[in-house]
Amino acid sequence: MAGPEPFTTRGLSISEDVAVVGGLWAAVRHPWFFLFFFGLFFLVSLWMIPRLWRGIKYLLRRLTDPTGSPPGIDPTGTAGQ
Question: What percent of the chain has pLDDT over 70?
Answer without folding.
Answer: 75
